[in-house]
Specification:
It is a single chain. With about 150 residues, the chain is an alpha+beta fold. It has 2 domains: about 40 residues, no CATH class; about 110 residues, VSR Endonuclease (Endonuclease, Chain A), CATH 3.40.960.10. It contains 7 helices and 4 strands. A 4-stranded mixed β-sheet has the order 1-2-3-4. Helix 5 links the parallel strand 3 and strand 4. Helix 1 crosses helix 4. The model has no long low-confidence stretch (mean pLDDT about 80).
Length: about 150
């Protein structure tokens, strides 16, 4: 599904084209295609969106936050999630930019930053962390859109 999300996000195909291509495929293939959508800037973002949605969360992608810019995801209307791959976040300039974004996001509400490696190798811990922050938000009266 990450490949379909990437193709949709890049404008190489439309949802209509995806549906047409998968129309006569087995039900399982149509189900996968039916879950694809544009919005992911990377395969990791697509994977996280799919995994969180399968756990019942509402995932908004590429959300604009005043003073910050685009944030990878907002989960259940409460938690801002940034997903970092080492290749794009390894230099001093990227490190400093990420810290400034984190400070601005702290003013906007809950935020969390995880690495692509954590998503791929430690998914259950990442999911537990996300859900723990969301539960804490609900307990503090910050609400949720779920």
């Amino acid at each position: 599904m990450a490949v379909l999300d990437t193709a949709l996000s890049s404008g190489l195909v439309t949802l209509e084209t995806v549906n047409d291509v998968f129309a006569h495929q087995p039900r399982s293939a149509r189900a996968v295609a039916g879950q694809s959508r544009p919005g992911s800037d990377s395969g990791i973002e697509s994977l996280v969106r799919q995994r969180l949605e399968s756990r019942g969360h509402i995932v908004e992608q590429q959300v604009h936050v005043a003073g910050v810019g685009r944030v990878d995801m907002r989960i259940d209307g409460v938690l801002y999630l940034e997903l970092d791959g080492y290749a794009y976040h390894s230099g001093r300039e990227a490190f400093e930019r990420d810290r400034a974004r984190d400070a601005a996001l702290a003013l906007a509400g809950k935020r969390l930053r995880v690495s692509a490696r954590q998503v791929l190798e430690e998914w259950e811990q990442v999911a537990a962390l996300v859900e723990g922050v969301l539960v804490d938000s609900e307990n503090r009266g910050m609400g949720s859109v779920r």
